[in-house]
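Proteins fold reproducibly. Next comes an illustrative record:
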Amino acid sequence: MDYPGQRRLKIYAHVEVKSFADDPALASKLILPEYKGKAERAMLLHLDAFDWNCPQHITPRFTEAEINQAILPLRNRLIDLETEVSHLRAKLAVNKGVET
């Protein structure tokens, strides 16, 4: 699933269940030595077809890093505006003090 790109890959396949006891060569390829669990079988997928779905009903989702990158110009503009407001308030306070 690619939420930002609004794409979904559908895979159509047949499953073949293989016991590691019956196929030690397959077991040696798939079992991770550091894995503490005991793997007993594998499911092999035999691909029949695949299709990239229409994006119409896929809600875009983004990572926090992608959102932060997208709003960076807004944050920078906010900092600039807050700085400008601070300077204008200080200037206004000085001008009010002169008038009184």
